[in-house]
Each structure stands twice: as C-alpha cells, then as structure tokens.
Amino acid sequence: MKSEDTPFEGGPMDGRVLPVLVGMTGHPPKTYRIPVPDPSGGPSTVLVYRRVPRERGRAGFARWKYAYDPTGRKGSGRKWPWSKPDATPGGKPDDADG
C-alpha cells in the first residue's frame, strides 16, 4: 500500500505530519479517527479530523491536509437526489406564512 505524509491542523495533533494510507485513486480517507485511551481506564476519546484541500502542489495536483473537527459528528454520507431532506420545514402544509 502507498502512503502520503499528511499534515494535521488544529486540536491535539496540530503541526504533526503522519503517513496516511491512500486509496487506489491516490486520495487519503475523508475522515481520520484517532482513538485516545483514557489514562484512568475509562472510555477512550476519539479525535476526528476531516480531509480538506491545501495549496496546490506540483503540476496542479490537489494535496490534502486534515483539519480538526471538535464536534466529532459522523459524516453525512452520500447525498443522493432522491434522499429525504435532513429537516422538515415548520408549519402546516396549507399555511401561507410557513
């Protein structure tokens, strides 16, 4: 497997560069999760980093970096055109004011 040195921004990993495995397309994963064990033996904490583009590299190829996501929410996944919207509008169906 091929890896690429990828920088991390924000959070506890700020300024570090780690080798991250890239897929067949040459891109690292969209989300990088780092489990951090609790020293007192409690449940571990998971640091979540999201892939974002950084400055253009050689020959216009986009390079990537990971930015800290303090919310740690799961990705929304794929957005299909036939998927239901995340939130429904308020009000009654026949209400003109919403």
Distance between the termini: 54 Å
Tally of strands: 5
Average pLDDT: 81
Question: Order of helices and strands, N to C?
Answer: EEEEE
Unreliable stretches covering 5 or more consecutive residues: none
Note the total helix count.
Answer: 0
Write the layout of secondary structure elements.
Blueprint: E1 3-9, E2 17-21, E3 31-36, E4 45-56, E5 62-68
Parallel strand pairs: 1-5
Antiparallel strand pairs: 1-2, 3-4, 4-5
3D structure, described in words:
Residues 68-98 are annotated as: Disordered. With 98 residues, this protein is mainly β. The protein has a five-stranded mixed β-sheet with strand order 2-1-5-4-3, with no helix packed on it. Helix content is 0%, strand content 38%. The protein is globular and about 55 Å long. The protein has no helices and five strands.
What is shown here, in short?
Helix content is 0%, strand content 38%. By secondary structure, it is mainly β.
Identify the notable features of this structure and list them briefly.
mainly beta, five-stranded mixed beta sheet
